[in-house]
Design goal:
Structural class: alpha/beta
Helix content: 25-40%
Number of helices: 4
Distance between the termini: 35 Å
Strand content: 15-25%
Strand order of the largest sheet: 1-2-3
Radius of gyration: 16 Å
Shape: globular
Largest sheet: 3 strands, parallel
Order of helices and strands: HEHEHEH
Length: 110
């Protein structure tokens, strides 16, 4: 996927980076004005997956205001231990198969 398709919102001016474009999926873990900015960038039939817990919105209110949009708050802890184990095994398998790559890590000597 091209680098300009994935942005780290707090690190860049993502409103400006996506100026004139809409996104299909937002994986959100932000709060305050970043949630509003992310919602503004969502395509009409887009999916907003809310992983943060500090700025939850009312899904019915959002879909009334944005027909076709899906707002899905997610709480991984609610999945339960069996489902969490399944998810983790799947993710580890994707790393082992080379589908996913670890994020870069920077370390400094103390």
């Amino acid at each position: 996927m091209p680098d300009d398709f994935i942005l780290d919102p707090p690190a860049v001016g993502f409103r400006e980076a996506f100026a004139g474009r809409r996104v299909d999926v937002v994986l959100n873990s932000l709060a305050r004005e970043f949630v509003d900015a992310s919602l503004e960038l969502l395509a009409p039939q887009g999916r907003f997956v809310e992983m943060g817990r500090t700025a939850l919105r009312d899904p019915e209110e959002l879909t009334r205001a944005n027909p076709g949009m899906t707002y899905a708050p997610v709480e991984l802890g609610e999945a339960g231990p069996e489902r969490m184990g399944e998810i983790l095994r799947t993710v580890v398998g994707l790393f082992e198969a080379g589908v996913l790559e670890p994020l870069p890590v920077r370390a400094w000597d103390v």
